[in-house]
Amino acid sequence: MADYDDIPTLKENIDRATVDSVRSLDVDKYKYGFETDIESDMAPKGLSEDTVRFISAKKNEPQWMLDWRLGSL
């Protein structure tokens, strides 16, 4: 039987059957995993003309939108 002294709980009377059920799931071996590969790009901190151009290019914005954003900068 498992040693329950190392289980942090908020309640004194936790249902041990529930704890056993959760432990039996063995989530470390979950076949679908919990990772998602997401493509991402990083821009330097702050806002500059280069950053505005970078974001506009990533969004495939039209030239007039880029010009408007640069004018606002």
Overview of this structure, please?
This protein has 73 residues and is mainly α. It has three helices and no strands. It has helices spanning 16-24, 49-58, 63-72. Helix 2 packs antiparallel against helix 3 (63-72). The longest helix is centred in the last third of the chain and has 10 residues, at 49-58. The mean pLDDT is 78.
Question: Regarding quaternary structure, how should these chains be classified?
Answer: single chain
Helix content range of the residues, please? 25-40%
Mean pLDDT: 78
Report the principal-axis shape.
elongated
Query: Strand pairing plus helix content: what structural class?
Result: mainly alpha
Order of helices and strands: HHH
Weakly predicted, low-confidence segments? none
Number of strands: 0
**Proportion of β residues?**
under 5%
Cα end-to-end separation: 65 Å
Most strands sheet:
none
Summarize this structure briefly.
It is built from three helices and no strands. The chain is mainly alpha-helical.
Secondary-structure blueprint:
Elements: H1 16-24, H2 49-58, H3 63-72
Features:
mainly alpha; 73 residues
